[in-house]
Amino acid sequence: MNTIIEPFRIKSVEPIYFTTREERFHILRQAHYNPFLIKAQDVIIDLLTDSGTSAMSSEQWAGMMRGDESYAGSDSFFRFEETVKRITGLPFIIPTHQGRASEKILFTIMGGKGKYVLSNTLFDTTRANVEFSGAEGVDFRCAEGRDPELDAPFKGNMDTAALHSFIREKGAAAISLVMLTITNNSGGGQPVSMANVREISTICKQQGIPLFIDACRFAENAYFIKLREAGYESKNIPEIAKEFFSYADGCTMSAKKDAFANIGGFIALRDEPLAEKCRNLLIITEGFPTYGGLAGRDLEAIAIGLQEVMDEDYLKYRIRSIQYMGNQLDALGIPYIKPTGGHAVYLDAKRFMDHIPVDEYPGQALCTALYLEGGIRGVEIGSVMFGKYATDGSLVSPPMELVRLAIPRRVYTQSHIDYVTEVIAGVYNKRRDFSGYRIAHEPPFLRHFTARFEPVSP
Ligand SMILES: *Cc1c(COP(=O)(O)O)cnc(C)c1O
């Protein structure tokens, strides 16, 4: 088989600034060993997130110029609305400035004290908005999804038996909605199968519970279904997407993911009275219903991006390039979460840095080592991000210590990825030279963004 090449040519470029190891040593120290505090210009390959970091196409840039900035009834809104309706089959479309704004509006109306929101895995902003409304978020991730070693096709699925028994225990009236995150971001970008969506939808319909989809990576998920689920081999991406949206009562989306936009989002709904309530809140918090929190040019870019993301040549390259990195890591014997998902590779820092105890943050050690050795920026997803303290002051760790390398869409080429794995291999070969960290300063909430660290042994 021939090499799967990037399905685009490059028309406009951005420079990468190179730093020496010596310079990065000082930059890292000045940033208190926290990659979030490093300036983007001092990063060679930035894998911090795939959110809002996509390269737009020439068509999208042309759309930006065409954007109609009328306050009400803008042409760009109608193009955006038509596209989202066509993809989702949902009739009521509400633009917002990003995913969490959609969540805030939805859960202000649907959440509240004493209610539950059930999920395969709620993304952290979704959980925060559920909890802010007074409701409680509960995740039922399938058993395969909890085993980092297991190579299974749909590790993003929800555990439907657990869903059933929770509904039986609490009663359907206590459950605001079920939110299915596709692909399952916090679960490693793993896909959800059509069979799982269908089964959850049947349960929800029987119980009268609304089913929502967190659709940030709907196209990546649809492509995994085409590749891995019997009966979908010869369906195209719009057909597959249309089918899973047909089981849902609504969706929220961040256009910063599978819409190749740098900002934006929406809510799509089946129920008109609910749409009315959402629009009433939208006017207070985001803007008039035909622009939400966006400029006309953003609506234009999103409408075009949503169409482009369903192109199978793009999706083949996208999924294959993440897998390609996984294959290289396999050849080197480097531990990561298997199989690779749709948007990122998750290095298993606990095994990678097995000489560093969890209370010295092996994920942080791996993250800073990748920056020092190769100028690569990833993000720790482990005890720094999710650790809590017990009453005696000892650290309570989450089950895994990971470093996420998220791949921006259409930004890096195969040689960039080759470079990344070379740097990872270099760090792996001398991993015992890297020490753990202690936290020198931390804020009360979301400490990973601003915490300061010190090496345990400099
Ligand atoms: C990014 C993301 C969100 C939130 O979207 P923002 O645009 O960052 O506010 C919600 N859910 C999932 C699964 C995401 O990946």
TrEMBL record:
Modified residues (N6-(pyridoxal phosphate)lysine): 257
Domain Aromatic amino acid beta-eliminating lyase/threonine aldolase positions: 46-422
Pfam families in the record: Beta_elim_lyase
Single GO MF descriptor: carbon-carbon lyase activity
Keyword annotations: Lyase, Pyridoxal phosphate
GO BP terms, alphabetized: aromatic amino acid metabolic process
Cofactor(s) demanded: pyridoxal 5'-phosphate
Protein family (similarity comment): Belongs to the beta-eliminating lyase family.
Name this protein carries in UniProt: Tryptophanase
Lineage: Bacteria, Pseudomonadati, Bacteroidota, Sphingobacteriia, Sphingobacteriales
